[in-house]
Amino acid sequence: MKVKLALAQINTRLGVVEKNLETHLAQIKKASQEGSDLIIFPELSLTGYVLQDLASAVARKPTDDDPAFKELLAASEKIDIVAGFVEEDERNRFYISSAYLSLGKVVHVHRKVYLPTYGLFDEGRFFAWGDSTAAFDTRFGRAGILICEDFWHISPPYLLWLDGADLFLFTSASPGRGLTTEPQLATAFWVESINRAYASIFTSFVVHCNRVGYEDGLHFWGGSTVFNPDGNLVAKAPQEKESLTFCEIDLNELHRTRARLPLLRDERTALTQRELTRILSRDGSATGR
Amino acid sequence: MENLEINTSLAHSILTGFIRSETQRAGFNKVVLGLSGGIDSALSCYLAAEALGSENVLAVRMPYKTSSQESLDHAQLVIDALGVQSLTLPITDMADGLISKWPEMNSLRKGNIMARCRMIALFDQSVVINGLVVGTGNKTEILLGYTTLFGDSACAFNPLGDLYKTQVRQLSRDLGIPEVIIGKAPTADLWSGQTDEGELGFTYAEVDRLLYLLVDERFTPQECVEAGFDQKFVETVVARVRRFHFKRVMPPIAKLSNRTVGYDFLYLRDWGT
Question: B81 is in which domain, residue-wise?
Fold first, then answer.
């Protein structure tokens, strides 16, 4: 089975959901016209990234009652959509979330589980921590969503893998840093490297959509990628520039790669569980959280 | 270990994008900057001209009566090379209005007055052109506090503030800024023969390597000494960085209410754009 992907590497307006929604609808329309099956938007694509005190003001619930989601859900009759937003739950906690929409329904919402609160990041100050990394079924097989810092930790991709995800959908609003003599920033190098590594060690498809543009002095570098189960690059969006990048992935590659390289078959999950139980129950363990 | 070398084409692309973004999101198309004849303002001017088009950049030369002809000539080289709009506004009358009241005024006070006169002229011109003032300060001078608060440090945004002087030189060379500007000794040009490095007591090349370790690589002062830097030099620089921190932050507001600007009223400048 072949799936046509569209990576919507967009810029956003900070805190102006209506304008960002317009951008989404325009990109969705273009991707539909190109015959894409699934379009992926970056982290917080409906709101912008450094929201600080705007977080509560732009928060919403991903339902038909919400004006933005109403339009996105309608658009999802034609093409599956991953969009980023600030989610407010029933008890008024705010999350950095990404929703998977298909055939007019919300199929899945992932709440970011790792909120970087160090260096230039301050997410833990403004947002609640998500508490789950579940995979979910789509028209194209089982998938999983992670948001930026989530995949700087090995455990969320690993859990998605064991939960059946063959298609990893990663979204970011990654501020570029680390200027050296290389033609890309250190951040760009590392994000691309770990995406390639996950594709290889999980013998799965890894799609990463990052945003572009600036927020004050922060600069988002783009460079969205798709890697196949062999760890090979299938598509790459330009650095720095807004783009809608199309590519086709062949899900039969999962069969071919895993026939050659049965890493999933051989994964010792019971051993992992035993060892984790032992490690976390050890007196004085500092690992548990 | 202290590798300050950068990919200049990447820096160039990020910085021109930054200038465009910060100008246009604020609702403007034009910028103004002071052109001293030195390398920092030359580089800011090159980047701004490329980001916005030379017709949208106003370069202002603001000599005081003791400023050297060479500074004016070097600034003119930049104006001619880029074809930016230009203006020469001598600040002598303005500055002497204050300076002449104190015949014994020292050079620190005079220098600060001149820097603040230039700030007034630039912000005034920004209204005339309906634009923003672009900063020209680099990371080295920001960290060392070698700047006049509300004078040359005043700007709407600053493209060079995360580049050490050494890196400013590398980027300037790659952009084709005249070698006579890159190669000369940096100076505030307050009196004949004055140089930054003479006043500071060390060279930019040396201090950049040290600052890179202290700031970017998070070395302790002791680790810098172990890496080969002279202890006195390390102590001097560490003390300067701390002592002048006040120039790098907004003035603190005494907190009284439940919501106070700077503490828990937090929005980016780009809010809503």
Answer: 8-194
d(CA B6, CA B4): 6
Q: Which two tokens stand for residue A6?
A: 């569209």
- Residue pLDDT, tens place only, B142-171: 999 999 999 999 999 999 999 999 999 999
* Rg of the Cα atoms in chain A: 18
Question: What are the CA-CA distances from residue B31 to residues A213, B20, B28, B58, B129 (Å)?
Answer: 20, 10, 8, 6, 8
Helices then strands, counting H and E runs in chain B, come out as 12, 4
Nearest CB partner across the interface for A179, out of B10, B22, B268: B10
| Beta pairing class for A167-172 and A141-147 | parallel
Task: Look at residue B2 and tell me whether its pLDDT is greater than 70.
Answer: no
pLDDT band of residue A284 (cuts 50, 70, 90) is low
In a domain, A130, yes or no: yes
Using the predicted structure, report yes or no on whether residue B115 has a pLDDT greater than 80: yes
Mean pLDDT across the stretch A219-235? 98
| Number of domains making up chain B | 1
Q: What digits encode the pLDDT tens for the residues A72-91?
A: 999 999 999 999 999 999 99
Q: Domain range holding A223?
A: 2-281
Question: Confidence class of residue B1 from pLDDT cuts 50, 70 and 90?
Answer: very low
Number of domains in chain A: 1
Residue B242, domain member (yes or no)? no
Kind of pairing, strands A225-227 and A243-250?
unpaired
Residues of A in contact with B265 (CB under 8 A): 53
Supply the CATH number for residue A244's domain. 3.60.110.10
Work out the minimum CA distance from A158 to partner chain B, whole angstroms: 32
Chain B hits for A180, Cβ within 8 Å? 3, 5-7
Whether A173 contacts A44, CB under 8 Å: yes
What is the CA angle B43-B31-B81, rounded to 5? Answer: 45
The residue among B4, B10, B21, B164 with the most chain A CBs within 10 A of its CB, best to mutate, is B10
Contacts of A27 (CB under 8 A, 6+ apart): A6, A8, A10, A39, A41, A244
Model confidence, pTM: 0.95
Identify which has the larger pLDDT, A107 or B3.
A107
Domain membership flag for residue B55: yes
Cα-based distances in Å from A79 to A37, A99, A106, A237: 5, 14, 13, 20
Q: Is the residue at B96 inside a domain?
A: yes
User: Given CB atoms, is A217 within the 8 Å cutoff of chain B?
Assistant: yes
Which CATH number covers residue B141?
A: 3.40.50.620
pLDDT above 80 for B60: yes
Residue B34 belongs to some domain of the structure: yes
- CA distance to partner chain A, nearest, from residue B95 (Å): 33
B17–A183 C-beta distance less than 8 A = no
- pLDDT for the residue B191: 79
Q: Is the ipTM of this complex over 0.85?
A: yes
